[in-house]
């Protein structure tokens, strides 16, 4: 396995960008109409909204790497080596199974509304072409993400089953790796055992901004 696949919600990123753009416009209008002092005083409101949306929507991600699966959720980071993944489940989102434990991944969004009720609602699996890039970014649903996890696990544990590539394509892949190597934390330095690290700092930053916002509204 000579690539990474990062799964993150495209619409979450777009939504966060839209909220951030509106916040900038709001602050610019405040600066023009009321001056710099008023714009500075009102800054906690748009900043708190943007940070909250970024934490809820854009922060979660799922990375499939040579060393294993890295899950970044709202409150914790989870590193799971390939040889400890036994199955995946997609009831109420993506869940990665390791023996008697299940880890929820918040990154792949469920489809809702009309799209979820269509007969052929599940999209096709993305094409992973390492001759173009070795760092793939994918937008998909839990069902496809679960399939990707199991496929990449089999390739990592049984590289002899990987599809054959031509010498020309192999050379291009090596060139891509040389130009943009895979970080050691996702390859040689990946934990040998399942590791869970709590990450309260993003939530703490959001909580501080929301508290500042509440204080401003009270005043």
Write the layout of secondary structure elements.
Layout (H helix, E strand, L loop, with lengths): L3 E4 L2 H25 L1 H6 L2 H15 L2 E5 L2 E5 L3 E6 L5 E3 L4 E5 L2 E5 L7 H5 L17 E4 L3 H16 L9 H13 L15 E4 L2 H18 L1
Parallel strand pairs: 1-8
Antiparallel strand pairs: 1-2, 2-3, 3-4, 4-9, 5-6, 6-7
Helix pairs in contact: 1-3, 3-7
What does this structure look like?
The chain is α+β, with helices and mostly antiparallel strands. It has one domain (4-114, 137-181, 191-218). 45% of the residues lie in helices and 19% in strands. A six-stranded mixed sheet has the order 8-1-2-3-4-9, with helices on one face. It has a three-stranded antiparallel sheet with strand order 5-6-7, covered by helices on one side. Helix 1 (10-34) packs antiparallel against helix 3 (44-58). The longest helix is centred in the first third of the chain and has 25 residues, at 10-34. Residues 113-117 have low confidence and may be disordered.
Shape: elongated
Taken in chain order, the helices and strands follow as EHHHEEEEEEHEHHEH
- Major beta sheet, specifics? 6 strands, mixed
Radius of gyration: 21 Å
Structure classification: alpha+beta
Look at the structure and give the mean pLDDT. Answer: 85
- Report how far apart the termini are: 57 Å
What is the number of beta strands? 9
Poorly predicted residue ranges: 113-117
Beta content comes to 15-25%
Domain module tally? 1
> Number of helix segments?
7
Q: Strands of the biggest beta sheet: in what spatial order? A: 8-1-2-3-4-9
Query: Roughly how much helix do the residues carry, as a percent range?
Result: 40-55%
């Amino acid at each position: 396995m000579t690539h990474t696949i990062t799964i993150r919600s495209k619409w979450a990123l777009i939504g966060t960008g839209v909220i951030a753009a509106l916040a900038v416009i709001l602050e610019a209008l405040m600066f023009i109409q009321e001056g710099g002092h008023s714009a500075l005083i009102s800054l906690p409101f748009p900043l708190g909204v943007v940070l909250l949306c970024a934490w809820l929507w854009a922060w979660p991600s799922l990375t499939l790497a040579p060393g294993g699966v890295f899950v970044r959720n709202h409150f914790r980071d989870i590193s799971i080596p390939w040889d400890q993944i036994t199955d995946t489940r997609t009831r109420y989102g993506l869940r990665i199974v390791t023996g008697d434990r299940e880890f929820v991944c918040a990154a792949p969004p469920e489809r809702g509304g009309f799209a979820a009720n269509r007969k052929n609602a599940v999209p096709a699996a993305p094409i992973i072409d390492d001759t173009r890039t070795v760092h793939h970014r994918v937008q998909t649903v839990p069902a496809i993400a679960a399939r990707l996890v199991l496929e990449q696990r089999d390739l990592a544990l049984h590289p002899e089953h990987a599809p054959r590539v031509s010498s020309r394509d192999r050379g291009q892949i090596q060139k891509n790796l040389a130009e943009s190597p895979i970080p050691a934390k996702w390859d040689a330095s990946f934990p040998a055992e399942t590791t869970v690290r709590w990450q309260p700092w993003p939530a703490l930053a959001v909580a501080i901004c929301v508290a500042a916002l509440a204080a401003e509204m009270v005043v």
